[in-house]
């Protein structure tokens, strides 16, 4: 059993009443990642994976298939999980998805329910990538795995039933940051073409220097200490320094022009708030059509942790609506 120290939780007065009631009814301990050894982190991953595996998938006609596809040069193959609508079909919209987990945890299995929902509601084909995790695999391994999976998805679009002109890239939290970075790589390497980017509370900036990172240092979920730990796991001692690639921390990118249209959302009460607001503003300034949502009284991952709250339902519907517009469905 992992032995991470549990910190007391601080509730902000702006916290949405429904979210407050939910977390007061079932308090969520905040794990002190800074005190956790690598062995304890691995044990924590195993516990999380076991928990996810024990949750039954929703009853669905969506077909789910795992494949191993070519990885980056001189690197292992990458597992992808493919979700197809019942009845198959051709030239469907495509969503290439990147899971969250602070760069240190997670797998495609975590997002099965979300992907199934998108497939059922939008008739799309989803491909979710299982990238290598830090600290065992620091930058650039995670983003290169994500890019390799995107290249395979684009090359295999006809076989998968995807319309290559309607392939979006999306992700949440660390996956949102990796999605933004993967889209930057696709632009700078001349492909694949990406029609849209769906960035949900993305982890974009390693510098830990925004007002929100201080204001919400004791955030309900993914606090400042955890964020520092995740970036250090990915970048080592380079985190926060002058020599960090924008493909690791997309907020470092100086040029955001020529990127596909974007959707970004974030909660008011999370460390990512200001970096996400700034990224959305800079995308718009660069001529990229951008939709941005700031959810009042919301903490990181609120919609997954309290899915029945009105604010959570509103956030999910906004994402679906954005994809509908992007796909023309």
TrEMBL record:
<protein>
    <submittedName>
        <fullName>Acetyl esterase/lipase</fullName>
    </submittedName>
</protein>
<dbReference type="GO" id="GO:0016787">
    <property type="term" value="F:hydrolase activity"/>
</dbReference>
<feature type="domain" description="Alpha/beta hydrolase fold-3">
    <location>
        <begin position="96"/>
        <end position="303"/>
    </location>
</feature>
<dbReference type="InterPro" id="IPR050300">
    <property type="entry name" value="GDXG_lipolytic_enzyme"/>
</dbReference>
<dbReference type="Pfam" id="PF07859">
    <property type="entry name" value="Abhydrolase_3"/>
</dbReference>
<dbReference type="InterPro" id="IPR013094">
    <property type="entry name" value="AB_hydrolase_3"/>
</dbReference>
<keyword id="KW-0378">Hydrolase</keyword>
<dbReference type="InterPro" id="IPR029058">
    <property type="entry name" value="AB_hydrolase_fold"/>
</dbReference>
């Amino acid at each position: 059993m992992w032995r991470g120290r549990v910190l007391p939780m601080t509730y902000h007065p702006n916290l949405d009443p429904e979210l407050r009631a939910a977390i007061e009814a079932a308090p969520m301990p905040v794990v002190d990642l800074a005190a956790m050894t690598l062995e304890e982190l691995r044990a924590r991953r195993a516990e999380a994976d076991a928990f996810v595996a024990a949750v039954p998938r929703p009853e669905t006609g969506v077909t789910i298939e795992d494949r191993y596809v070519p990885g980056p040069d001189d690197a292992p193959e990458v597992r992808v999980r493919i979700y197809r609508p019942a009845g198959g079909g051709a030239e469907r919209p495509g969503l290439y998805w990147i899971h969250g987990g602070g760069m240190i945890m997670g797998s495609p299995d975590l997002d099965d329910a979300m992907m199934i929902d998108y497939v059922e509601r939008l008739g799309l084909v989803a491909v979710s990538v299982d990238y290598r995790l830090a600290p065992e695999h620091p930058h650039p391994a995670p983003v290169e795995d994500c890019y390799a999976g995107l290249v395979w998805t684009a090359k295999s679009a006809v076989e998968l039933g995807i319309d290559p002109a309607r392939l979006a890239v999306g992700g949440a939290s660390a996956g949102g940051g990796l999605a933004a970075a993967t889209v930057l790589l696709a632009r700078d390497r001349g492909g694949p073409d990406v029609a849209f980017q769906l960035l949900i509370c993305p982890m974009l900036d390693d510098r830990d220097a925004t007002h929100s990172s201080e204001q919400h240092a004791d955030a309900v979920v993914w606090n400042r200490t955890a964020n520092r730990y995740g970036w250090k796991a990915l970048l080592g001692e380079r985190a926060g320094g002058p020599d960090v690639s924008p493909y690791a921390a997309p907020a470092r990118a100086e040029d955001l022009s020529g990127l596909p249209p974007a959707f970004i959302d974030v909660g008011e009460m999370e460390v990512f708030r200001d970096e996400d607001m700034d990224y959305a503003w800079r995308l718009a300034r660069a001529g990229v059509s951008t939709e941005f949502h700031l959810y009042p009284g919301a903490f990181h991952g609120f919609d997954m942790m309290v899915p029945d709250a009105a604010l959570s339902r509103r956030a999910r519907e906004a994402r679906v609506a954005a994809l509908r517009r992007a796909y023309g469905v």
